[in-house]
Amino acid sequence: AGAGVRSGGGGGGGGGGGRQGGGGGVTGPPPEGFEQGTAKRWNEKGFGFIEPDAGGEDLFCHFSQISDGNALAAGTTVHFRKQFDESKGKDRAVEVKGGIQEERGGGGGYGGGGGGGYGGG
After folding, report:
1. Residue 68: how many CB atoms within 10 A of its CB?
2. Which of 16, 53, 103, 119 has the fewest CB atoms in 10 Å of its CB?
3. Residue 17 maps to a domain
4. Does a structural domain hold residue 89?
5. Which residues form the signal peptide (predicted)?
6. Pick from 52, 49, 50: nearest CA to 35
7. Do the domain assignments include residue 12?
C-alpha cells in the first residue's frame, strides 16, 4: 500500500568555472573601506581591469594586488580599495579580493624551473 511520497533525487550541482581552481569572485557586501566591482578582462601578462559598481572608468589591477590569487576571472564580482597612481595620474585597484589562482605556465619565463634543493642532510 504505502506508495505516496517518493522524494525525487536532488538536482546535480552546477559545474565549476572553467580555469584551474574554478570560481573566483566574492559574495556579500564589501568590507568597510572597500568598493565592489566586476572583473572585466585579464591579460596573461598579469594585469587586468575592474569596472567599479559605483561607475567611472575601469580601474587597472596588477596581479600583485590580488590578495587571494594571481588573476581575475572576467565577469566575477570583486572587492577592492581605490588608490591614486601618481605615475599614471589615475586611480587603480589595490588589495583586491575575489581572485583565482592561475597556473602561470608556458614560455613567458616567469622565473621558471629553479629545481627545489632545500635542505639536505
Report:
1. 13
2. 119
3. no
4. yes
5. none
6. 52
7. no
